[in-house]
Amino acid sequence: MSPIRRNNRWLPAALWPVVAAVITVSSVPSCAGDAGDKPAEQPPAGPAPLRLVVDLPDAVGLSGLDFDERGLLLAVPERRPLLLPLRFDGSRVTAGGPPVPLTGAPPDLDLEAVAAIGPGRIALGTESQERDRAEDTILVVTLHGDRAAVTETLALPYALWELRGDGNRGVEGLCAAGNLLVAAAEIVGTAGKRRFAPVARRPLTGGNWVPYRLMLASETGRISALACRETASGAALEMLAIERHYGVVLLLGFELPTAGPGGDLEPRVLADLTRQLDKAPNFEGVAFLPDGSIALLADNDNGGVIQGQTELAILRLPAPAADTPVAAARESRQREQVAVP
Known about the structure:
Blueprint: E1 21-22, E2 50-53, E3 62-67, E4 73-77, E5 82-88, E6 93-95, E7 100-103, E8 110-118, E9 121-127, E10 135-144, E11 147-157, E12 171-177, E13 180-185, E14 189-191, E15 194-203, E16 210-215, E17 222-230, E18 236-245, E19 248-257, E20 263-265, E21 268-272, H1 273-276, E22 282-288, E23 293-299, E24 301-302, E25 305-306, E26 311-316, H2 325-339
Parallel strand pairs: 1-26, 7-11, 16-20
Antiparallel strand pairs: 2-26, 3-4, 4-5, 5-6, 5-7, 8-9, 9-10, 10-11, 12-13, 13-15, 14-15, 15-16, 17-18, 18-19, 19-21, 22-23, 23-26, 24-25
C-alpha cells in the first residue's frame, strides 16, 4: 500500500446546521490499560436522537459508515458489490451520487464495514460463513471515476488474541485516522470474568497489527461498528464503537494509543440507545459528523429478511472539559472550519 496521510475531513460549519438531538452523556475518556472485573458504568437515559429515513432504492441492508474526502457519507450493502454515497444536509439524507459498482470482491464474503483511507481509496471489512477460521479479510479498494475495484487485501489474524473466527461474524468495525487503520471484530473473547472484542491498529503504509482487547459493557453485546479521529496531541485516537445484540444497543467511547504495545481498553458507555429509542434498530455504522454530532446507520436486512426502512440516527455529545486532548482537538477543528472560505 502506498504511503497515505489522512487529514481530518471537516466542512464549513455553516453547511451543517445543528439539528441533532442533545443527549446528556459523558465525554470520551482516555482508557488504555489493564481492565479489571468491573464492567463499564451505564449512563442515565437521555432524550432520543433524531431519526431520519434513508429513502433510496439501494439503501437496503447497509453496513458501515464513513466520510470521504468530498464530505460525503459512504456506506456499503452487505450482500451487493456497491458503494453508496450519501449526503446529509442537517435535516435529511439524499443520494450523494449514483451507486458505484465494485469489482473484485469475493462473492462468498459479506461487506460489513467501510473506512476512507485517502483520496480515491477505501477499505472494506468483510465476513464469511466459514466456521473456525484463522482470519478475516479486509479489502482495499481504489475508485476509478464511476467504478471501484479491489486492488489489495489484508488479513486480520485472530491468533493475535488466541481466538478463531466464527460463521457470520467478521470485521464489523473499520476506521482510519492519521496514518493508522483500526479494525474491530465481532467475535468475543474472555479475560477473567470480562468479555472483550478484538481491536487492532496498523499503519496505513504497511506493517504489523498491534492487538488490543476492548472490554465489553454488556453480557451479550458484540461490536458492530467503529469510528475514529485524531486528537490534538496525536498520542491517541478518539474512538467510538457500537456494542449491540438483541436488546442491547450501546455507544462506547475510548481512546486508542497511536504508538507502543497493545493492551486492554476500558470504554465508557456514552449512550444506551435501548432506553432512548423505541425498538432500537440494528445499528451497524457510526461516524463523527463535522458539527460534533454522531451519525449511526441501521441495517434493515436480518438474514435476508427486510425489516422496516434504513435509518440514520443523529445524536450529540456535550463538549468535554477545555483542558482535555479531545477538547483541544475540537477547538483546532473549529478554527479550521472558520478558515475555510
